[in-house]
Amino acid sequence: MIEKYYFLFGLAIVWIMFAVVQDLKKREVANWLNFSLIAFVLAYRAFYSALNDAWWFLGFGLLGFGVFFVLANALYYGKVFAGGDAKLFMGIGAILPVESYSDLIYEGIGFIFVLFIVGAIYSVIWSGYLAAKMRKEFDKEFLKNFKKTRGLFVLVIAFGIVGFFGGAWWFYIAALLFVLSLFYVYLFSVERCCMIKLIKPGKLMEGDWLDKDVKIGRRVVKRSVHGLSADDINLLRKARKEVLIKEGIPFTPAFLIAFLIMVYAWAVLGFRFLEFFSSFL
Fold first, then answer.
1. What is the mean pLDDT for each group of 10 consecutive residues in the chain (281 residues)?
2. Domain at 196-246, CATH class
3. CATH class of 2-126+250-278
4. What is this structure's pTM?
């Protein structure tokens, strides 16, 4: 029954809302917030399991957390998620309303699918806002990057012309490649002109992403997926070194929207991805 998950859904919504506020204000989500969500979720599952002698409820929570832990680390090291996003993702894995291994597979895939669809739309809107806000800088950067990759566009257009005579599908593929190439130049241009900031050493924070390695005397502060460490920041502050920092898009709003969609589907519509996918098998 879905009712036993209502507390978990409400808890997650409140915690994700706090994460959104932190992310928008500080561009980071505190570890205590994510870890407390995971702790409360697993504690609730343990209490419910003990009270109802239903230890499978705790077991599937731990399994969901474990699966999403592995996926979160893959996405983190692949630079898809920031650290806070990855930990929030793990917590949601422990919340999924699963009561079988099939549920875990299909509901997990379903949530990831919804999250990335919402995330893609959200990222386009956010990047569009940044491009409009800094339109002159963006136009200049976009034109520069378009000129650098014009050979690729010529190749795609030539492929499309040849494909037009070879069949409609080839033409459609060429058109898709053209749009994707243009979208890549657009996103790259937004990143370079709108998301790279020169930061004074006194304002650096742990986890900030360097745009490139920084040489200080004989030492080099290297770019890392983990961002700047406390030692790195101390070294940069002693050298009074301003550095270029790459800001990411605050992604927690996408988590909140995706989770609300899934809660509505699970709790109100009674929708299950297992049944949805089974209809195609």
1. 84 94 86 92 94 91 95 87 90 91 87 92 89 88 85 72 64 74 84 84 80 80 80 83 82 94 86 67 54
2. alpha beta
3. mainly alpha
4. 0.82
